[in-house]
Structures are given as structure tokens and as C-alpha cells.
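QUALITY CONTROL LOG
STEP: pairwise intake check
CHECKER ROLE: data steward
CRITERIA: each record must contain a sequence immediately followed by its C-alpha cells, with no blank fields

ENTRY 1 OF 2
RESULT FIELD BELOW
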Amino acid sequence: MSREYLFLFHTPLGVIQLKKRLNEWGIHFLVIDAPRVLSAECGMAMRFELTESHQYSALINSQVKSIYQITTEGYVVLWLDAQ
């Protein structure tokens, strides 16, 4: 079973860092504009699916602002940076 995630970032550096990690894992991703209903400091977000063999928490770095799971009802907050 896979789940779809949306990562928002403090700066574009976070996008670059996460792109590198997802490429290493062989995960397809999309870099998109952050949805207006969610706040993003750099305005960019990444959307991708992970299977149970990969945990989203392993992708958190200092540039990640928030993480959401995408569901049929909308966005579910999974993690928020305390900054």
C-alpha cells in the first residue's frame, strides 16, 4: 500500500536536498507550487508516493516546513516544524 505525501519547505534548498534523496530511493516526484490553502515560505512543494518500505520521517531535514498526507478529503497534517 502506498500513501501520497506533500512536503513544504522553508527555502528552495530543501527542495534540492529532498530531490537528491528521492532520486537515491528511486521515487518519482513532482515539484509544484504550494497549494494556497497551505502556507509555504518558499512557495514550492514536492508531491510523491511512498510505500511501506520507506518512511516519510526519514526525509525530514532542517529545510522542511511541514508534511501532509494527501487523502480524498484533503490534506492531513503529519508533521510541522517547530520554528
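ENTRY 2 OF 2
RESULT FIELD BELOW
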Amino acid sequence: MQTVSVQPLAVSQTVTVTQSNDWNSGICDCCDDCGICCLAFWCFPCFQCKTVNDFKECLCLPLLDPFCMGYIGCGTACPPISLAMRASVRERYRIPGSICDDCCMLCWCYSCSWCQMAREIKKRKQPFTFVTAQTTSMQMPVQHTLYPQM
């Protein structure tokens, strides 16, 4: 049996990861994730509820927009729940912009704005994987042991 006379030294390493402080995709980049785009096209209310749920908010929150105003056309007012959701996504991920920008996006590109939020939430939920390896070489004293011959 060999005895370890020297213990390996502890190595400390700090890794800092920063996300981009901008939207990961543009307002019209539906081809970046065709699954999101297809779900929004075929069942928009279901898509909204899934997006809000992925953001860890109340599942039925988008259904509170009055008269489905975003889905059938905004008219003169911006949909309040959708506006709050977009502003919340921007705040959580520190994306620059203003409530006025959010309102304009929702009034003119309602479904595209929701798709952009869904792509952002999906992208930011992906875990980071770090793999580091360090090899430490140590000299061990060799002890000769005599074994009986048979």
C-alpha cells in the first residue's frame, strides 16, 4: 500500500457569463424558431398562455386583454396585459427600450411581438454548460515491496 504524502492543492476559478442586453431576435425573425411561429399561427390564445407560463406567470393572464383586442386588432388602445408582459420581459432580461416602444410594437405587430417574447424567453431559459479540466502532476515516492515467490 502506498501512502499519499502530499495532498493536491485546491484550485479556485471564477467564470462570469453575461447575456446580451438586447433582443436575441428581431421582431420579424419568425424563421429563427418555426415551432413558435407555427403555434402562434394555428392557435394564438394557446400560444400566448404557453408563453406566459414559460415566463412563470399566471397561465390565463393573456386572456384578460379586453375583447381579445390584440388578436383582432388594437384599434386606438394598446392591450394592457400584453404591454405589461412585454415590459416585464424587457425588465427581467435588462433589454433596453421604453414602454412607448413596447406599445408601438404591440399596436402594429401584435403577433410578431408575442413571437419575439416567446423566442427570448426560450433562449434565456436554456442552461449554460461549462466544462473545465485541469491536470495536476505530482511526484510520488516509489516504495519497493517484496512479494514472496510461489
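INTAKE CHECK: passed for both entries
DESCRIPTIVE NOTE, ENTRY 2: The CA atoms of residues 40 and 46 lie 8 Å apart.
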